Amino acid sequence: MGRVVVYGSVSVDGFIADEHDQPGPLFDWLTSGDVPLDESGLLKVSQTSAEYVRAYWDRIAVTIAGRHVFDLTDGWDGTPPSGVDHVIVVTHRPPPEGWDPAAPFDFVEGIEAAVAAAQELAGDRFVEVAAGDVGGQALAAGLVDEVRMDVVPVVFGSGKRYFGSVDVQHLLEDPAEVIQGHRVLHLRYPVRR
Predict the structure, then answer these.
(1) pLDDT tens digits, residue range 11-67?
(2) Element (H or E) spanning 148, and its range?
(3) In this structure, are residues 1 and 141 in contact, taking their beta carbons and an 8 Å threshold?
(4) What b/e string do you get for 77-104 counting C-beta neighbours within 10 Å, with b at 16 or more?
(5) Superfamily for 4-190?
(6) Which runs of consecutive H residues, i.e. helices, occur in the chain?
(7) Burial (0-12, 13-18, 19+ Cβ within 10 Å), 177
(8) What's the pTM?
(9) Least C-beta-crowded within 10 Å: which of 62, 77, 93, 182?
């Protein structure tokens, strides 16, 4: 099975959004370079970031996100983000009214069921878990192989935490990669088992 990776852009003090779900400058690095990251041409990063991020994105088959993120993004209009094949939404609620059942999204109750469904779909490719509450739940359940962070040089002071409400210590291995891009530091940590 493919690796399960918690991923997200994060402030230096560990937040993925402010208290009003606004990312502020956390995604500015995605438009601060001159190398296109996708076909849209909207995302342009430094050469270093492009090589790192593109290699990672190309390995992701399935993204797991919570219902809150799904609702904030309007379900990405039924198209998985960043070229991902499928999205698993962790939720206790049914799909929104009028949702296209043919869209490559599954609505699953519980993080364990979500990871199992995602791994089945992903095969040997990566399962990405969005940072925040769902990422923290996956880490706490022992389901995560790796943590990737795009650390942005900003301090929020408060907001939505990278691992949500996790309040128990979890050890990670030494960084497997540390890559400096423009206005971002890419970090990759294997999870200690």
Answers:
(1) 999 999 999 999 999 999 999 999 999 888 899 999 999 999 999 999 999 999 999
(2) strand 146-152
(3) no
(4) eeebeeebebbbbbbeeebeeeeeeebe
(5) Dihydrofolate Reductase, subunit A (3.40.430.10)
(6) 47-57, 67-72, 111-122, 133-140
(7) exposed
(8) 0.95
(9) 77
